[in-house]
Specification:
With 293 residues, the protein is an alpha/beta fold. The protein has helices at 5-17, 20-27, 31-45, 61-89, 104-114, 216-224, 234-239, 271-281, and strands spanning 50-52, 57-59, 91-95, 120-124, 139-142, 151-159, 161-166, 176-177, 186-189, 209-212, 230-233, 245-250, 256-263. α1 crosses α2.
Length: 293
C-alpha cells in the first residue's frame, strides 16, 4: 500500500486541530476514519508518527519531520489545483517584451464583449515561449518562430521596427532613422527573446560593438544611460515608455510578424475568438494572413 494524500491530510489535521475528534470535524469525516489514516501512514512508513494519551496528542521526532514534508506536499497539490482552476476562469496570454502594444486595450475591450465571463489576462515571462513551456500562460504572443513541434501558432499581424536611443543622443533629434545610422554605436541585443539580429545591418556595415542583454528592463536602462542603442518592435515603443529613452521609426528594415502560440495538444477552448479578435485589433483579415502552423 502506498502513502496517500488522505493520510497526509489526516496527520496535518490532527496536529492543527489538536485532537482526533476535532480533526475529524475539520475533514468532515469520522474519528475512526482519521485514526485509520494515521495508523495506515505509520504502517506504510514503518515508524510511529504520534504519541497518544487519553488527553494529548504529540509528534514523535520522526513525526515532526514527516509533518513538515506533508505540509509541503499538500501545499504543492493546492498550487496545482489553483493553476487548473485559474485556467478555467481566465485566459492567460504570455509575452516576453510587450503584449500587443497599442492593440492590447482594443483586444481586451473586444474580448470582454465576446467572452465576458473569462478575463483576458496578460502575463510577462522573459522566456523563448513567453510563459507557455513554464505553465505561466495558456497562449503566448511571439515575434520570432518557436522551433518546437509541441506548439502550434497563428500569425495575427505585423509591426514596424523602431530604434531606441538616449534622449541626449543626436539621433533623438531626428523624426526617423535608418538602420545604418546605428552602426557606429554600441547596440544592445537580447538574443534569447528579442527580435533584433545583426542580419538587419546586411549588406551594410554591422555594428562594431554589441552589448548582450537579458530582458527589456536591462535593455532600456542601458539606452537611457546612453551606453547603447537598440532596435525593437513598435509594441515595445508603445508599451514601454522610459524617461531618457526616445523611440524613432526605422525606415529601411523589414516589419516584424506577430504570432499567437499555444500547446498543440491542449489549445484553449476560446482560441478561435482570441485569434480572430487579435487579427481584427491589428486591422488584418484572415484572408491576408498566412503562417498558421
Amino acid at each position: 500500500m502506498d502513502l496517500q494524500l488522505r493520510h497526509l491530510r489526516a496527520l496535518v489535521a490532527v496536529i492543527d486541530a489538536g485532537t482526533f475528534t476535532d480533526a475529524a470535524t475539520e475533514l468532515n469525516t469520522s474519528q475512526a476514519a482519521v485514526s485509520r489514516s494515521i495508523a495506515a501512514a505509520e504502517t506504510i512508513l514503518g515508524v510511529r508518527l504520534l504519541q497518544r494519551t487519553t488527553r494529548h496528542v504529540s509528534l514523535t521526532v520522526t513525526g515532526a519531520q514527516v509533518l513538515a514534508g506533508a505540509r509541503r506536499v499538500l501545499d504543492e497539490i493546492a498550487h496545482l489545483h489553483r493553476i487548473a482552476e485559474q485556467s478555467r476562469t481566465e485566459l492567460r496570454v504570455g509575452y516576453a517584451w510587450a503584449a500587443l502594444g497599442k492593440h492590447t486595450r482594443r483586444l481586451q475591450r473586444a474580448w470582454a464583449g465576446v467572452q465576458p465571463g473569462i478575463p483576458l489576462v496578460f502575463v510577462q515571462t522573459n522566456s523563448v515561449t513567453a510563459g507557455l513551456s513554464e505553465g505561466a500562460a495558456d497562449v503566448a504572443v511571439i515575434r520570432k518562430p518557436i522551433d518546437d513541434p509541441r506548439f502550434a501558432s497563428a500569425r495575427i499581424g505585423t509591426e514596424a521596427r523602431y530604434a531606441a536611443v538616449c534622449t541626449e543622443s543626436p539621433l533623438a533629434r531626428r523624426r526617423s532613422l535608418r538602420i545604418g545610422d546605428l552602426a557606429r554605436y554600441t547596440v544592445a541585443i537580447d538574443a534569447r527573446t528579442g527580435t533584433t539580429t545583426l542580419d538587419l545591418w546586411d549588406p551594410g556595415p554591422r555594428p562594431a560593438t554589441v552589448r548582450r542583454t537579458t530582458g527589456v528592463d536591462e535593455w532600456l536602462t542601458l539606452i537611457a544611460a546612453n551606453q547603447a542603442v537598440g532596435v525593437t518592435s513598435e509594441a515595445t515603443a508603445n508599451q514601454n515608455p522610459r524617461p531618457g529613452v526616445a523611440y524613432r521609426r526605422l525606415r529601411d528594415v523589414p516589419t516584424i510578424p506577430v504570432w499567437l502560440a499555444w500547446w498543440r495538444d491542449d489549445p484553449p477552448g476560446q482560441l478561435g475568438d482570441l485569434v480572430r479578435l487579435s487579427r481584427e485589433a491589428y486591422g488584418e483579415s484572415t484572408a491576408h494572413l498566412d503562417g498558421d502552423r
